Amino acid sequence: MTGFAFCGSHCTLNAALEAAKRLIEAGEELLPIFSFSVSGTDTRFFKARDFCRRAEELCGTRGIYSIVEAEPLGPSRPLDYLIICPCTGNTLARLANGICDTPVTMAAKAHLRNGRRILLCPASNDALGAGLKNIAALTVRKGIFFTPMKQDDPLNKPFSLVTDFNKVPEAFEAMKRDTQLRPLFL
After folding, report:
1. pTM for this one?
2. Which CATH class is domain 2-73+87-176?
């Protein structure tokens, strides 16, 4: 089973659901994991409960909503792989600095301690600003892989990077072979 963790880049959650759908259609069994932002914040894009219900229906299983529920994903209920899609700048910073205070970062910590691989799918308005050091730190960490990303609006949001959600399945297959899909920046 592969964990599919949703973080609070709310404007990209539809694209993340589509990526999850493509993985399921390719035969992957996904366990949804929700950040506190996704499970607890109603936005102009989604009501939190509606989004979580949609993801659970797509995956066919109840999701992970708490740190307590995420912790066993390491020792007693290991995942084969973990995808964090979208992965916000806050989550990138937490992972780069070993901070474990959300269901998603606990799932990542639990998963990494078993020596397993994680695919990160960044979506951040500050990825090329203050967040760039976190991407750099994570690119050299064993077991961490990225989906190729690009500037989504270079003129109006010059520091923003977003994953190419169409490449999530291809990046996932590369990660399973212990390979980083290139080019990393499109």
Report:
1. 0.96
2. alpha beta
